[in-house]
Amino acid sequence: MKKYYDTQDTRKNSLQNPSQYFLILMMVLMFFSGIFNTSSQIIQRGVATTATSTTTNVTINKPTGLTEGDIMLANIVQSDNDNAVLNNATLTGWTLVAGEEFGNIGNDSWWGTILYKVATVTDVAAVNFTFVGDADADDIEGGIIAFSGVAVTGGVAGGPFDVLPGTINNINTDDFSATAITTVTDNAAVIMFGMIGDNRSISNWTTTSPGALTELFDFPFDAAADMGVGAAWGIKTNAGSTGTGLGELSGNENDPNGAILIALRPCTATPTITTTGIAASVCFSTSAQTTTLPYTATTNSPTSYSINWDSTANAAGLADQTTTSQTFASGVGSMSNIAIPTSLSIGTYNGTLTIITSGGCRNTQAISLTINPNVGIPTAITIAAGTEPTCQLTNGTTTTTYATTATNNTGLNWSLSNPAAGSITSSGVMTWSSGFSGTVNIQVTANGCNGPSIQIVRTVNVLPNSTVGTASSTPTLCINTALPVAITHTTTGATGIGTPTNLPAGVTATWASDTIVINGTPTTSGTFSYSIPLTAVTVAQPQ
What we know:
It comes from Flavobacterium aureirubrum. Keywords: Membrane, Transmembrane, Transmembrane helix. This is Ig-like domain-containing protein. This protein has two helices and 41 strands. Helix content is about 0%, strand content about 45%. By secondary structure, the chain is mostly beta strands.
C-alpha cells in the first residue's frame, strides 16, 4: 500500500452550468388490475455493480434488475503514476455530474468522475457498459447504481435534482468529508459518492440528516497507484440541511480522497390511468398501422407514454415503442398512435405500458394487443333448400335457400341485382316474384376484418312462359280444295313446334320467326280442332 500525507491539488473540472445537471430517474414499476397505485418513493433498483481494469477502459455490468426509465449513476476513478494530467472518463449517452482531480502527489494522480444515464430499452438489453478513461490512465475502476422513483424533470433546472450538485470536496485526510447540501423536498434521496487515492475500504457512512447511510458499494483496488471507490445513500424524510457527509476509511493515515453529496427529488404525483389494458384489436395488414387504448380516467396529468413489448412480441416484429407524446384527458379518453409494423402476424401480444408526466414521474400498466385474421372470400353459392325456377311462375311465389361459407366471417350480406326478381333475406332465403322472367344475380359478400369481402355472384335466368295467339282464320272449304290463305298463329317464348294433332290429312304446320303457318289441301272431310305443341329454350342453371 502506498501512503501519502498532507498534500492535495485543487485542479478541478466540475460542471458549473446548471443546464448540464440532469439525472433521469424512473418511477417504481407497480402493476395493478385496472388502476395504478398512486404512491411512490425513490428506491434502489437491484444491486450495484463494480469492476476494475489495468487499461484505460473499464467494463462494468449493468445493475441487476435494471428497468427502462431507471437512472444509472456511475462513480469512476482513474489513476496514473507517470505525472500525467488526466481527464474525465466518458461513455456516449452518459452525462457528467461532477469530475475533477482529487489527488496529485509526486508522479501519481487520481481523477474522479460521476456520470448518469436514463436506462433505455437498449440499456436494459445490454450486459455491460464500457467507460473510456484518459489515454494516460494506468488503471481505472468504477461502480454503477440504479434508482427509480425520481421526478426526472421536476427538479431544479428541469432535472432530477432537489438541489443543484456542487463539486467534489477533495482533501488529504484520514476520512471522507462531503460538503453539506440543503434539500427542499421531503423524502429526497441523499447519495454520497466517495473516491480514494489508496486501496482502503469504507465504513460508517453518515450525515446529520438523514443520519446513517446505507452502503451501495465499496471497492478498493490494488493498482499501480492504489485507489478505491464507493457510495452510500438514504432517504431524507424532511427537507433541510444534510450536514456534512462523512465516511470512515480503514487504517489510520492520510490519503487523497474526494466526496460529494447529491439529492434526487422524489415523485410526489405519480400518474395513474384507469383502463383494462386491452388495446383496440386490428386486422392483419401488409401496411404499417396504429391502434388505440381506451381508458376511463387519468390522474396527475400524464403527458407521454412508452411500451415495452415482451420477448415474444419482439420476436414477432413488434418493436418497443419509445416515448410518445400524448394528450390525456382526466376522464374518458383514448390513447392513440400505438404503432403496429407491417405484416405483424395474427395473435395476441403482451407488454408493459409506462405513462409519464412532464416532471418525469412514471407508472406502469400491463397492455395487450390482438391482430385478427382477415375475412375470406365466400365460396361458390349453392342451393341449400328449395328449387330454383327456370321458367316464369304463374301460380304464386316460391322460395330458394342459398348457401356459402367464408373463413373468419362475422356475417354475410345477401343482395339481388334485379329487385323485380323478388327478395332475399340476410340468411340467404330468396322469395321469387310471381310472373318474373329475366336475369338476376344472387350476390353475397362476407363481413369481417378488412371486409366486406369480394362479392360472389350466382346468375339465374328465368325464361318467360311460351304463348300462342289465336288463329288468323277458321276457313270452311270443300274437300280436296287448297286453303286459299294459310292459317297463322303468332307465338312468344317458343323456339319451335312439336308434332301437330288432329289436322286433316293433306294439311301441315310449320314454325318460323315466332309464327306457326298451317297450309295445304285437306283430303278428308269434317270439322277439325287441332293442337300444336310449342317447344322452348332449356335453361341450364348453376348447380
